[in-house]
Automatic annotation (TrEMBL):
Pfam families from the UniProt entry: NmrA
Gene Ontology terms, MF aspect: oxidoreductase activity
InterPro entries: NAD(P)-bd_dom_sf, NmrA-like, NmrA/Isoflavone_reductase-like
Descriptive protein name: NmrA-like domain-containing protein
Keywords from the named record: NADP, Oxidoreductase
NmrA-like domain location: 3-223
Species annotation: Penicillium vulpinum
The keyword Ion transport appears for this protein: no
Family affiliation: Belongs to the NmrA-type oxidoreductase family. Isoflavone reductase subfamily.
SUPFAM superfamilies assigned: NAD(P)-binding Rossmann-fold domains (SSF51735)
Length: 297
């Protein structure tokens, strides 16, 4: 049995992974949170510690006898990366064996300023582990400018490559993390989880096949996308709680433009280290996922 702590593990992706870890019955789990334990969290194997990430001593105490820490701290809300840096320092002092920082996005952060903190934390880990091994995981999750419901997409007009994108279901992510926690070998420094990979044009073609009709495709130029200027007639809705409602429309345009450009810069082309280490895990393909959710719509 492994004792695991999830920092910020009761929201979004963290909760998806928590549910799988808890369901396995093989772990003692501790949630580190700035909030009190919610009334609906009644699972016996899930403990709760309300922490102040500015109090490193308190974090060290909370992490006593913890083997693995998974961080889901929202980087955009962690000013100066103070919370994650303190968490990392506390892990070192408490003797935590494995730490996965909040890098649950793509293969890199190039062209995505809101993810700059991920790079800074990665560099900090490299600094404090110059004489030791470190572990981290990266994963890709979505391509929001391909709208399956409304049969439309936005692509880059002057991309110098097909724009390859790695896509992984949240179920696969959660199950791979659960297996990685039990993995007895050394965690790789770069731990890519790749469910499937295809080009943007192939993704649109697959969508057209599953949805049974052609997509309306608009294209934007890289010179505009680089500035965060979206010249398409529409933008996906920005519903993330980190962005205030009054800023979401403008943020969606910037986010979409820069994300589209970053795909053609291979930012979202994720490696497959954990696929190789866990060859028995069967990943869901993009085609199978779309067929399940959209074929009868």
């Amino acid at each position: 049995m492994v004792r695991i702590a999830l920092a910020g593990g009761h929201g979004g992706l963290g909760r998806e992974i928590l549910d799988v870890l808890a369901a396995s019955g093989q772990h003692e789990i501790l949630i580190l949170s700035r909030r009190d334990k919610p009334a609906d969290e009644t699972r016996e194997m899930v403990g709760w510690a309300r922490v102040d990430y500015n109090d490193k001593e308190q974090l060290v105490q909370a992490l006593q006898d913890i083997h693995t820490v998974l961080s889901f701290i929202v980087v955009a809300q962690d000013k100066g990366n103070v919370s994650q840096r303190n968490l990392i320092d506390a892990c070192v002092i408490a003797g935590v064996k494995r730490f996965a920082p909040s890098e649950w996005a793509g293969a890199s952060t190039d062209g995505l300023p809101w993810y700059a903190g991920k790079t800074a934390v990665h560099q900090y880990l490299q600094e404090i582990n110059r004489e030791q091994k470190k572990t981290t995981k990266h994963l890709e999750t979505w391509g929001i400018h391909v709208d399956m419901q409304n049969r439309r997409a936005i692509l880059l007009a002057d991309g110098k490559n097909p724009g390859y994108l790695s896509l992984t279901t949240v179920e696969d992510v959660a199950n791979v993390v659960a297996k990685a926690v039990l993995y007895e070998g050394q965690w790789p420094e770069v731990g890519g989880i790749r469910g499937d990979e295809l080009s943007m044009t192939d993704l649109v073609a697959l969508g057209e096949k599953v949805r049974g009709g052609s997509f309306s495709v608009e294209k934007i130029k890289s010179v505009h996308a680089r500035m965060g200027r979206l010249t398409a007639s529409w933008a996906p809705e920005m519903g993330h709680t980190v962005v205030s409602e009054g800023m979401r429309e403008a943020a969606a345009k910037i986010f979409t433009a820069k994300t589209i450009l970053s795909i053609y810069q291979a930012t979202w082309r994720v490696s497959d280290e954990w696929n190789q280490l866990l060859p028995d895990h069967k990943f869901t393909s993009v085609g199978a996922f779309l067929q399940e959710w959209w074929s009868d719509k």
